Amino acid sequence: MTGSTGTTGPTEDHTTAPQRDLDRPYDLVGVGIGPFNLSLAALAHGIPGGLATAFYEQRPAFHWHPGLLIEGATLQVPFLADLVTLADPASPWSFLNYLRSRDRLFPFYFAEKFHIQRAEYDAYCRWVSELLPGLHFGHQVDSVRWNPERRLFEVDFTQLDADGEAAALGRSYTRNVVLGVGTEPYVPEPLRPLADVPGVPVIHSADYLAHRETLLAADHVTVIGSGQSGAEVFLDLLRARPAGKERIHWLARTEAFAPMEYSKLGLEHFTPDYTRYFHALPERVRSELMPRQWQLHKGIDAETMAAIHDELYRRSMHGGWPDAVLTPGVRVRTAGRVATTRIELHLEHVQQSTRSRLTTDAVVLATGYRERPVDRMLAGLDPYMRHDAAGRPRIDADYRLVLDDSVTGAVHVQNAERHTHGVGAPDLGLAAWRSAVILNAVTGKEPYPLPRRTAFTSFGLNEHNAREAPSIPAQDRKLTPLTQIV
Known about the structure:
Blueprint: E1 28-31, H1 35-45, E2 53-57, H2 95-101, H3 105-111, H4 118-131, E3 135-137, E4 139-147, E5 152-160, E6 166-174, E7 176-179, E8 183-185, H5 192-195, E9 202-204, H6 212-217, E10 221-224, H7 228-240, E11 248-251, H8 272-280, H9 283-292, H10 302-314, E12 324-327, E13 330-338, E14 342-349, E15 354-360, E16 362-365, E17 369-371, E18 410-413, H11 418-421, H12 431-443, H13 463-468
Parallel strand pairs: 1-2, 1-7, 2-3, 7-18, 9-16, 10-11, 10-16, 11-12
Antiparallel strand pairs: 4-5, 5-6, 8-17, 13-14, 14-15
């Protein structure tokens, strides 16, 4: 393997990507620079002997959910779930080293905050992205192909100028690829025509802060979505609007505004142990299990729920109720404009089997995200890819797309494998561990030793449990008939 690593400052231009020729292919090319590929790049930087890597991102700089960096909003994982610590606590790219570089270790120590604010996490990731070598922003990857004659992947990209227009074309050759293109905001079908019309305030929560002043000026606002983003948007609007004149509706399809599962044993679903267990389940079982686990990752944290109730209670202390309506169990059937400036939502309450209409001046869609489609980018790999019964890509335990045996390189994925690896796929707490798994697979070595066990829960009756149990000689084994077990 070629390349070198360092511990300070960038060694390559972040805007102009060098092209690797056939004689010097990269060991690894990453597509997309979000937290997960940034984690991979940071850990790859620390491998002794070095990996030749390049990471391409079409955006001009790193930004992490800028529309939801609401003042006071915190991560739902501890600060230890940074880019590197859970795989390499001594890495120079840790959150604690970021604080040290800013002379903020003691203030953080005395703040006693296990969960940091989102804005601080975003600032930390930008610090890494501005110093880490091998990251190339303003580069849009157009296609990834396998070249069977050269036994390399060809990665074609377009270099973009400051206005986002094409400035130059390029191609890199690499032995391995990692896709980390992230997700994109999901807009439900009934509201897509309205969200696409300029001037009509129907926005996704991903763009909330950019439209906050417009929303505060609206006479009536409706928030749709029962997850953490919906709760944070509702709380921010509630706090900013005058008492008695809040005029906010909060609607959700779920049967309740439910808390996220945050018990210590419940959190063990976000461990490598559970990831391995889930991946080993039959495909049919995995597909049936995923929808039932929504409260593990789509609920609302208890502090946000308490803050909402406290704010509503405070506004009722002097008599009367705040003009805020919170209704779960409701779905939007259709929607349309009224007099070009207002929005009419046609609602159905699932349990009551009743229908109603709601006229509002603005809508915030806290309706979550979907995996960003990569079919066009990977069209050249389609003949080699293997799919499951539902048409989804098959992904092995090391996060590799299952490809034809003739492909000697690997394409790994990040945050596109919930159907094979479970609820932890989008969780920041597993970012460093997954990056370590990928790098161990890419190098064929173990630059990052991985823990054998990470949870007190044994999720299945498997060989791990048998190995942990003391051996009992066959002649001493006594089996109790099932009929005698109470």
